[in-house]
Amino acid sequence: xxxxxxxxxxxxxxxxxxxxxxxxxxxxxxxxxxxxxxxxxxxxxxxxxxxxxxxxxxxxxxxxxxxxxxxxxxxxxxxxxxxxxxxxxxxxxxxxxxxxxxxxxxxxxxxxxxxxxxxxxxxxxxxxxxxxxxxxxxxxxxxxxxxxxxxxxxxxxxxxxxxxxxxxxxxxxxxxxxxxxxxxxxxxxxxxxxxxxxxxxxxxxxxxxxxxxxxxxxxxxxxxxxxxxxxxxxxxxxxxxxxxxxxxxxxxxxxxxxxxxxxxxxxxxxxxxxxxxxxxxxxxxxxxxxxxxxxxxxxxxxxx
Length: 304
Hints:
This protein is an alpha+beta fold. 54% of the residues lie in helices and 23% in strands. Among the domains are: 1-51; 57-94, no CATH class; 96-204, Tetrahydropterin Synthase, Chain A (2-Layer Sandwich), CATH 3.30.479.30. The strands form 4 sheets. It has a 3-stranded antiparallel β-sheet, covered by helices on one side. A 3-stranded antiparallel β-sheet has the order 6-7-8, with helices on one face. Strands 1-4 form a two-stranded antiparallel ribbon. The radius of gyration is 50 Å and the shape is elongated. The relative contact order is 0.07.
């Protein structure tokens, strides 16, 4: 409608601009009429042309609506030529965060309060469908389904599982269920976060004590396994030493021992601190030889 008004106003202003001489005879008045008519024609012309083009900003998607007929072609970010008589409705495609406090019931019938957050965005391809079936306010539709699915998922777990042991699993199942339910409506669920779980205080204390006891048991089990491994290592080390000594003992024959004894005697005789060298074994009397190093030096021939 505004396009029609702007176009008519622009045409009228142009006619007035070129026929000002016919309207009045005074020259100054003619100039004033031309100036006013020219400004009006320019403004209304720009407004009419702007109805032919639309600019969709980044992070948004446009839907063209002409007299109740919605175009299936989504208008992505950028400049688009459109029907001047149509209206363009814009949706944000940016990620949104919807938080809810939900009262649910656990598998054993205990009342649980959960703080859940869903991060979602509009599917640009289904923007026209969202506009036709839901409109611009999708929050109420999402909240009702969000609460129903959350209660359904939580009812399949015990209070302890939701509170402590399987919180991540609950979040994953919630996200998966929400994706399957909201995708046909035109929404993409990125993640569902189980931010806080509220259970009766007595149950909370009991769960914390049990978890602490389990941690202590696991720690003790780890210590015992470590000690067992250390004992096994020492046993293997001792067995290796015993095997080495056995092999060494088997290799020490009488001939080898006699050779080692001779080598040790030679080294002892060559020592600067040796005074006597004792030779022999248990089967014959020992032979004692004095080592006179001074006499050896005197009797040694001198070099010319």
